[in-house]
């Protein structure tokens, strides 16, 4: 059995060799408004569609369940979202099955000069780190963990939200 996703032909060593999507080179604009752009992957097969959507909007208040002890004077914020909709094609013999995968990244933060790209990138890396599995599990938390490309997606697809020491040790190899 073989499974494939549309390709962009661009790769980079990001988070262990993740595929780098270059929207200006490999995607065509399907629609564009002041707060949304929908792009189509020009390199994907016609029967294996892939779309990339960017959205942004101003929000009156950045809601969170956190108890912020020293809130900034700025309450209004910005919310932006990147959505990747892709088609996973599985083939086994003559049988072909196409299935959708939709992934969302949404960011909300105050519209403040304190929110620098470096701070947003640090939070993003922590979010991605929450899905990755360590290659080693030191007992001392001060020791750096190595990431080898394994993820928690199989656990999450089985509604096993809470990581256990065993699942972290064995992990789910990406196929």
3D structure, described in words:
The chain folds into two domains: about 1-120, MS2 Viral Coat Protein (2-Layer Sandwich), CATH 3.30.380; about 130-175, no CATH class. The chain has about 180 residues and is of the alpha+beta class. Strands 1, 2, 3, 4, 5 and 6 form a six-stranded antiparallel β-sheet that branches. Strands 7-8 form a two-stranded antiparallel ribbon. The longest helix is centred in the last third of the chain and has 13 residues, at about 115-130. The protein is globular and about 60 Å long. It has four helices and eight strands; from the N terminus they run βαβββββαββαα.
Structural class: alpha+beta
Report how far apart the termini are.
11 Å
**What percentage of the residues does DSSP assign to strands (E)?**
35-45%
3D shape: globular
Write down the CATH class of the largest domain. Answer: Alpha Beta
Secondary structure tally, helices: 4
In short:
By secondary structure, the chain is an alpha+beta fold.
What topology emerges from the helices and strands here?
Layout (H helix, E strand, L loop, with lengths): L1 E3 L18 H4 E6 L3 E6 L9 E9 L17 E16 L2 E16 L6 H13 L2 E3 L12 E5 L1 H5 L7 H6 L5
Antiparallel strand pairs: 1-5, 2-3, 3-4, 4-5, 5-6, 7-8
Label this structure with key terms.
alpha+beta, single chain, 4 helices, 2 domains, globular, 175 residues, two-stranded antiparallel sheet, MS2 Viral Coat Protein
């Amino acid at each position: 059995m073989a499974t494939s996703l549309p390709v962009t032909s661009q790769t980079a060593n990001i988070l262990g060799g993740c595929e780098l999507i270059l929207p200006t080179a490999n995607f065509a604009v399907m629609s564009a408004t002041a707060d949304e752009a929908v792009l189509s992957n020009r390199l994907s097969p016609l029967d294996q569609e892939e779309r990339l959507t960017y959205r942004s909007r101003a929000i009156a208040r950045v809601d969170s369940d956190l108890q912020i002890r020293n809130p900034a004077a700025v309450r209004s914020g910005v919310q932006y979202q990147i959505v990747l909709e892709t088609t996973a094609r599985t083939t086994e013999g003559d049988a072909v099955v196409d299935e959708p995968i939709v992934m969302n990244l949404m960011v909300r933060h105050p519209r403040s000069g304190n929110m620098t790209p470096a701070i947003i990138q640090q939070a993003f890396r922590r979010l991605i780190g929450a899905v990755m599995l360590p290659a080693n599990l030191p007992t001392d938390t001060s020791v750096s963990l190595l990431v080898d490309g394994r993820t928690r997606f199989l656990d999450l697809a089985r509604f096993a939200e809470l990581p256990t020491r065993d699942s972290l040790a064995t992990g789910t190899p990406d196929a």
